[in-house]
# Entry
Amino acid sequence: MEIVRYTPDWKAKWDNFVENSNNGTIFHKQIFFDYHTPGKFSFNHLMILDKGNIKAVLPGRLQSDGMFESPIGASYGSLVTDDIRFAEALDMIDLLIEFGKKEGFKGYSLTAAPDIYERTRNQSLDFAMLWRGFKYDLHYISSCIKLDPSEDILEKFAPTTRRNIRKTIKEGWLDVEINDKYDEFYPILIENKARHDVKPTHSLPDIYRIAELMPDMMKLFMVYHEGNPIAGSLLFNSNKNVTLCFYNMLKYEFEYMKPIQRVMYEVVKWATENGYKYVDIGVSQDTKAQNPMTPSMNLIEFKEKFDARTVMRNTLKIEF
# Structure
């Protein structure tokens, strides 16, 4: 095996490999990186080849401090592989370390998707990295809902949440649509983020660009009251296993109507009917805390009302 640097000539083969891999997501695909404004990021993606065939891909960039970081400009990164044996994983990590030292890297910082994104659970890469000197550098707490088409969705939710959702359906004061009205969604999202002194990861032009490049990647759920948008949820269909609830938003003056609880029910229902195994509701960190690992207890407890369970997003790091 050998490591080579990615060039655009490999784009179709790279994306096809990710699509059919064991642990790849939309965030690892070259077509996803294309949504970024030209010049916003510089990338130094790497590929592991065996006799000219892709065996692994590593999106990312060599930072100014000499560390190779993955992901850059995406939610998840690290090595994407098939369902490999441990010996093969160990060979890949040895090759990666050897390449990094030869090229003058200071090390690697790799953040993979949680294991719910794997088609077949396989921690060979994780153990191989740890065995060869990688250390856990950072952990984020994330929440996911496991889907089962044989189970009643509402019965798995907390009792009060269950009653609130049933009331919104019975009273008929909320209408939920799947549409592409991002111009209605985004202003409310901006207001929500401002309450926490942050901005959305994506601009409105970014969202339109993603929709143009990957029409099936996003699914927008909008909640209306008397024809007016009051809440919504934007999903990123990350791979065949998982859809990621990237943004939830609401107009807080309508919070008493429980539109977020209703839209979460509709999201879980849609994801279950469309064959996904999990809904990832994203990380729950206290963004105002000094320690980036600080959990947001209120947010975690809110997610658990929808039968969510904790998964971790981990960063593994090695310095030479």
